[in-house]
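Re: that backbone. Tokens:
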């Protein structure tokens, strides 16, 4: 059985840990609100861009573009978007479990975030490039990633590009997803509700005119859409990271407080037992003297 000194030491240690996790929870909560707002505010624009693309593709007839070229996959590139830090629950492990499913012999990785780069290095996979993005992802950061992988595809160094990242659903839910990136094919909304837009387009009979032509519009749109695709992925990844960290630190704080409560009860019982024992010994000594 632990002594009162040992219990006091454990209570002090856990209290210090709870103070740290509480502080990290507050910091993550502050960053989480900004990250969630940025991720949610970008979705209407992405849906609008998707709508423009779908309007053009349904009216342009035959259209070819290097970014639409479907080839037999001999070499694949994966854009792995991870967190910069740990302490965010199972977020990183779920993401890396999905990334580990790709054949390391035929897959090269482009990483964003320190944890993603550490995973690739630890598993001895092929790293083509490493990018960083901050707590508030910027469009130039996304454009650099998109431009790099687009060049790989256009030079035929890879036949397919996929994105492995987390989708922000809400504060308690983040999903690890593997998303199509190149070839574009039917351009899709990344990490957003695509079915709603398809249903709206199905009943929309409004005539649309594109100047100078649907082909010119889509040729201009495709590269920029890919930049925005990655930007939205980064926003979702950061919102997911901060949300998972806030929830993780809250759970850690609650667990620490519960453990402190249990140890305090045990300490008080042990202390009360020792006091009772001493009183009995004193009373027994007085009776013996009498």
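Recovered sequence:
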């Amino acid at each position: 059985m632990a002594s009162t000194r040992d219990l006091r030491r454990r209570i002090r240690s856990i209290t210090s840990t709870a103070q740290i996790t509480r502080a990290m929870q507050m910091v993550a909560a502050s960053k989480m609100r900004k990250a969630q707002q940025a991720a949610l505010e970008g979705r209407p624009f992405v849906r609008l861009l998707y709508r423009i693309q779908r309007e053009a593709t349904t009216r342009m007839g035959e259209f070819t573009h290097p970014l639409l070229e479907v080839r037999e996959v001999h070499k694949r590139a994966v854009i792995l978007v991870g967190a910069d830090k740990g302490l965010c629950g199972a977020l990183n492990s779920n993401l890396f479990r999905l990334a580990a499913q790709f054949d390391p012999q035929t897959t090269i990785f482009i990483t964003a975030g320190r944890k993603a780069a550490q995973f690739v290095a630890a598993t001895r996979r092929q790293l083509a490039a490493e990018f960083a993005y901050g707590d508030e992802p910027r469009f130039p950061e996304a454009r650099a990633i998109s431009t790099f992988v687009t060049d790989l595809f256009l030079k035929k160094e890879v036949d397919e590009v996929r994105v492995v990242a987390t989708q922000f659903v809400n504060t308690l839910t983040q999903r690890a997803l593997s998303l199509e990136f190149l070839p574009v094919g039917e351009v899709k909304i990344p990490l957003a509700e695509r079915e709603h837009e398809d249903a709206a387009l199905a009943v929309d009979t409004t005539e649309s005119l594109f100047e100078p032509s649907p082909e010119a519009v889509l040729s201009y749109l495709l590269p920029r859409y890919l930049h925005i695709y990655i930007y939205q992925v980064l926003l979702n990844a950061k919102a997911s990271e901060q949300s998972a960290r806030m929830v993780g630190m809250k759970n850690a704080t609650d667990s620490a407080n519960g453990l402190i409560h249990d140890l305090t009860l045990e300490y008080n019982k042990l202390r009360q037992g020792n006091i009772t024992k001493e009183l009995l010994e004193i009373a027994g000594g007085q009776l013996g003297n009498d």
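The radius of gyration is 28 Å. The beta strands are 76-81, 107-112, 126-131, 160-170, 173-182.
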